[in-house]
């Protein structure tokens, strides 16, 4: 029987302004493992994505990534304290407990790519009326 185990999946995230997007992701808390004029590999722990020096509005503005983290409030605090919304003119919403068992916040990058950054929460930890 063939081995169909998947080892990794990486998204190619479009960037309207490649240098500005690189700074944004560094400020958010990712590190840049390597970069070329057209592609940069960003990572945090065992998670990573490729930032691409390529932009189509229809792609960027309809692209959503979900990042599962250990402490969503720490990630939100980092984004808030870095003033990403003011510095980069992006949308940043505070964390909320969701009915589907996640505490999450949303963030839109400088190219219009939407991120849902979330932490799994126990059903008993859900706030009443969340969702």
DSSP helix fraction: 10-25%
Mean pLDDT across every amino acid position = 93
What is the overall silhouette? globular
The share of residues in extended strands comes to 25-35%
Rg over C-alpha atoms, rounded to the nearest angstrom: 16 Å
Element-by-element helix/strand order:
EHEEEHEHHEEE
Total beta-strand segments = 8
Explain this structure:
It is a single chain. Helix content is 23%, strand content 32%. The chain contains four helices and eight strands. The strands form two sheets. It has a four-stranded mixed β-sheet, with helices on one face. A four-stranded mixed β-sheet has the order 5-8-7-6, covered by helices on one side. The longest helix is centred in the first third of the chain and has 11 residues, at 18-28. The chain is globular, with a radius of gyration of 16 Å.
């Amino acid at each position: 029987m063939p081995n169909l185990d998947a080892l990794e999946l990486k998204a190619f995230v479009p960037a309207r302004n490649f240098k500005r997007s690189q700074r944004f992701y560094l400020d958010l808390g990712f590190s840049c493992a390597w970069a070329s004029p057209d592609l940069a590999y960003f990572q945090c722990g065992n998670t990573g994505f490729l930032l691409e020096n390529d932009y189509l509005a229809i792609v960027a503005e309809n692209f959503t990534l979900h990042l599962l983290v250990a402490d969503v409030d720490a990630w939100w605090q980092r984004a808030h304290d870095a003033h990403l919304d003011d510095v980069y003119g992006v949308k940043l919403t505070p964390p909320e407990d969701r009915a589907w068992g996640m505490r999450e916040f949303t963030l839109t990058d400088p190219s219009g790519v939407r991120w849902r950054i979330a932490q799994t929460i126990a059903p008993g930890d859900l706030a009443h009326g969340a969702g």
